[in-house]
Structures are given as structure tokens and as C-alpha cells.
Specification:
- The chain is α/β, with parallel strands linked by helices.
- A hairpin with a 2-residue loop joins strand 16 (344-353) and strand 17 (356-358).
- Helices cover 33% and strands 21% of the residues.
- The chain has 13 helices and 20 strands.
- It binds guanosine-5'-diphosphate, 6-O-phosphoryl inosine monophosphate (IMO) and magnesium ion.
């Protein structure tokens, strides 16, 4: 039995989907434990390219079980559409995908409230994915949510919505000047969605515990990135998932204990990207930033919203910080091929804040926003790495770059990806 948690070490979109897709071969269960359909994980296989928002990346292996854990917020429309698309493209989902009866439901008022909140924030808008995720998690924490167990029980749903909708209407009408929602219409619409999802709903914590007892390997697929975490990210420009997407959140979001986790794999991009607002010390708004975004296959545009990603050099201060808060035991470095054409490459090893050199991330938002990166320059390799499959066949400068990042992370880099396709990956050593 083993449990591996895969987390994003930056601001999301590190390539977690493609790494989980590789590791899933060795697992029996692949499970999501946090976030919602703000996530967008790209998987490329023999059936084509997929962008998964809620379904775990293991779904493409017919013999794997996939779980959406209690920590995930589920928009029933998005999930049903994702299932339908997968089935249309030849992926069997029934009897292989299970959703926790404790997972919370994203409701129509969450989307309206988020849109209004973002407008009210004006120039301080977070730049959310616009999916209603924060109000849904706020309701979970505020004990005003609706869970999968309610959604699939028409009587419970009607009773809960009779309380929730009039209350939300007060906000919609009085605070935001929006149209109220009709209780009956929401009840009948969501009862129908509940009926469609009922076959998938289970006590998934028991399912996973049973699997662990019988010796199965469970891969826990993190969403987002640690720099978007509520506690440790660049607050307030973070996401509101509870549990958080950092490795510790995997226990809460799946119903397992800390002693059951064997290792944590941190996924890092060979440089940094971010979508949405908030500080990003190494951001480059010049032609180098454009080259990082546009160079190489699969340019840097959000998998969920299509927004251009902000790009910059690898932030070693932030990476060291996230490696530690997640307790990573191993790492994967993705998109190394994007650096192929740069004559030299910078890595941020410290920040200058108020004239002081610091090597950890300041908690103070203003300090973080004013942090000036201190760079170390490494030579580029000016060679195509996309066909390389063995570490020793990488140009010496590319090997040195990987080793440099490894020292920052203080964990072995086990996998290096050099292109978006499944086989474009160099395995250096076993993850555990
Ligand atoms: P996730 O949210 O962490 O799963 O990452 P996304 O799927 O949002 O973004 C990663 C993007 O990089 C996707 O378009 C992948 O197809 C692509 N990708 C993954 N690994 C590599 C790689 O090694 N090289 C290149 N060029 N693209 C990659
Ligand atoms: P994956 O799993 C990148 C960002 C949004 C915004 C902030 C808050 O694909 O790595 P939210 O809608 O969550 O309230 O937005 O968080 N964000 C992500 N950025 N990848 C993600 O997921 C993200 N999920 C949320 O862009 O800045
Ligand atoms: Mg993504």
C-alpha cells in the first residue's frame, strides 16, 4: 500500500495533470481532494487532448478507480458535462468514478455573488476564474452549504433550499441589486441534477480506506498551486479552497490520516506563471516574458479561462518555501523544453525588500508586492530537448539547470518533462 500526494509548487498549471497521468499507471485509485472546477488539468493521450476540471486524471486508464473526495466543491452542470464529453470520446466513466456524499455543491447564487463581489472590488479584483468557487467554500465554512448527500435526496434538498435560497435572495436583492431566485425552480432544477449524479455518489472515505487495507496504491491529485493557498499563498490574491490544495489538505479532503501518506511529489514548472491578479516578483512584461508564454508547444494560456498567463523566471524563494510547507519528498520539473532557445537563464534566489535581502516569502502583501528578485544567471543550452528521454542525454547546461533547481527544493527531481505528449518525459529515479 502507498499513498502519494501530487501538489503544485507554484501558482497552478505546473503540469500536475500530465504528471498524474504518468504516475497513475502504478496506482489503483486516483483521487481529487480539493478545489472545484477552477482547476484545469491537461492530459494528452491516444484519444487526443483533454482539459479536466473535476474528474481525476486517472480516468483514461480503464482499470483505475477515480474519486472526487469530500474536499472538492462540485458544480453538477460542469461535472455532468465533463462526464458526457469523456463518454462521447470513448472513455468509460460509469462504475469507475465515485463522488463523496460529503462534497459540497456549487449553486447558481454562488456564481452571481462572485461576479458581483469582483465588480465591487474594482481595481482590487482577484481575477478569479469566475466559477463561483469562493462563495461556495464560504458557505461550506459558514455552515450554509449544500452537500452531495442532500442533492441526491429530493426531500432533503427541498427542505435545505427552502432555507438557503430566501437567505441568499436577501444578499442578491439588497446588497447587489440582482434578481432573486425562485425557490421552486431551483429545487426542481437541482433535484434533476441530483438524480443524474446519484449513481456516482458514495462514502468515498470508506472506499479509499478499504482499498488501502487491501494494499492498493492511491494517487491524490492536487489542484491549483501552493502559492494560491489561503494560509501560505500571496493572500488575498489566493483561492479559497478548504481544505487547501497543499499536501496537508489531502488528508482532510479525502478522509485519511497523516500517517497514511507515504510521500509528496511537488510539481514545478521550469519557470513561473500566474493567472489572475496578485504579486509575482519574477514576472517579465518584456519580450522574454512573451517568449516564455508563446515559445514551445502549448503556449501559456489558462486551461480553464483561456486568459494569457503572466510569465517570468523561476522563483527559487517561493519554490523553496512551497517545497517545505508541503514536505515534498520528490519533485517533477515540467516544460524544460520552453527554455531551449534562451542563451542564458535567470533564477531568483533571494528578494530585496525595503533594501534588505531576504530568502523567504514575506507574509506582508505590500512587502511581497514590492519584492525585487535577486537573480543568479545560468548558461542556456540552445538545443532541442524535446526528443531527449534520458537525463544523461540532456545538454550539460540543462542538466546543471535541473540540479540547480533540485538544490533549491532540497528534494530529488525524479521526472523532467520536455514536451506535452505522454512520452516526452525523462524519468531520473522512482518517486518512492
Ligand atoms: P495543471 O493545471 O497543473 O494540470 O497544468 P495545465 O494543464 O493547466 O497546464 C500545463 C500546460 O503545459 C498544458 O498545456 C500541458 O499540455 C503543457 N505541458 C505539460 N508538460 C509540458 C512540457 O514538458 N512541455 C510543454 N511544452 N508543455 C507541457
Ligand atoms: P490548476 O489546478 C491556475 C487562480 C485564479 C485566480 C485565483 C482565485 O489548473 O492549477 P478562484 O476562481 O479560484 O477564486 O481564483 O486563483 N486559480 C488558478 N490558477 N491554475 C489553477 O488551477 C487555478 N485555480 C485558481 O486564476 O488568480
Ligand atoms: Mg491548470
Amino acid at each position: 500500500m502507498s499513498v502519494i500526494v501530487v501538489i503544485g509548487g507554484q501558482w497552478g498549471d505546473e503540469g500536475k495533470g500530465r504528471i498524474v497521468d504518468l504516475l497513475a499507471r502504478e496506482a489503483q485509485i486516483v483521487a481529487r481532494y480539493s478545489a472545484a472546477n477552477n482547476a484545469g488539468h491537461t492530459i494528452i493521450n491516444e484519444l487526443g487532448e483533454f482539459k479536466l476540471h473535476l474528474v481525476p486524471a486517472g480516468i483514461f486508464y480503464p482499470d483505475k478507480i477515480c474519486v472526487i473526495g469530500n474536499g472538492v466543491v462540485v458544480d453538477p452542470y460542469v461535472l455532468l458535462q465533463e462526464i458526457a464529453e469523456l463518454e462521447e470520446r470513448g472513455v468509460e466513466v460509469k462504475n469507475r468514478l465515485f463522488i463523496s456524499d460529503r462534497a459540497h455543491i456549487l449553486m447558481p447564487y454562488h456564481k452571481i455573488i462572485e461576479e458581483m463581489d469582483e465588480k465591487l472590488r474594482g481595481k482590487h479584483a482577484i481575477g478569479t476564474t469566475g466559477r463561483g468557487v469562493t462563495p461556495a467554500f464560504a458557505d461550506k465554512v459558514g455552515r450554509a452549504g449544500i452537500r452531495m448527500a442532500d442533492l441526491i435526496d429530493p426531500e432533503a434538498l427541498a427542505a435545505t433550499l427552502a432555507l438557503r435560497v430566501p437567505y441568499k435572495n436577501l444578499y442578491l436583492e439588497k446588497l447587489y441589486g440582482a434578481e432573486p431566485l425562485a425557490v421552486d425552480a431551483v429545487v426542481s432544477e437541482y433535484s434533476e441534477l441530483g438524480a443524474k449524479l446519484r449513481p456516482y455518489v458514495q462514502d468515498t472515505s470508506s472506499l479509499v480506506q478499504q482499498a488501502l487495507k487491501s494494499g492498493d496504491t492511491v494517487l491524490l491529485e492536487g489542484a491549483q498551486g501552493s502559492l494560491l493557498d489561503l494560509d501560505f499563498g500571496t493572500y488575498e490574491y489566493v483561492t479559497s479552497s478548504v481544505p487547501s490544495s497543499v499536501a496537508a489538505g489531502a488528508c482532510l479532503g479525502m478522509g485519511i490520516g497523516p500517517t497514511q501518506i507515504d510521500t509528496v511529489l511537488g510539481v514545478y514548472k521550469a519557470y513561473n506563471t500566474r493567472v489572475g491578479a496578485g504579486p509575482m516578483p519574477t514576472e517579465l512584461t518584456d519580450e522574454i516574458g512573451d517568449l516564455l508564454r508563446e515559445g514551445g508547444p502549448r503556449p501559456e494560456y489558462g486551461s480553464t479561462t483561456g486568459r494569457p498567463r503572466r510569465c517570468g523566471w523561476f522563483d527559487g524563494v517561493a519554490a523553496r518555501f512551497t517545497a517545505r510547507i508541503n514536505g515534498i519528498g520528490a519533485a517533477a520539473l515540467t516544460r524544460l523544453d520552453v527554455l531551449d532557445s534562451f542563451p542564458s537563464i535567470q533564477v531568483c534566489t533571494a528578494y530585496q525588500v525595503d533594501g534588505q535581502v531576504v530568502d523567504t516569502m514575506p507574509a506582508n502583501s505590500a512587502a511581497m508586492a514590492s519584492a525585487v528578485p535577486v537573480y543568479e544567471e545560468l548558461p542556456g543550452w540552445n538545443a532541442d530537448t524535446s526528443e531527449v528521454r534520458r537525463f544523461e542525454d540532456l545538454p550539460a547546461q540543462a542538466q546543471a539547470y535541473v540540479r540547480f533547481v533540485e538544490e533549491i527544493l532540497e528534494a530529488p527531481i525524479c521526472l523532467v518533462s520536455v514536451g506535452p505528449e505522454r512520452d516526452q518525459c525523462i524519468s531520473i529515479k522512482e518517486v518512492m
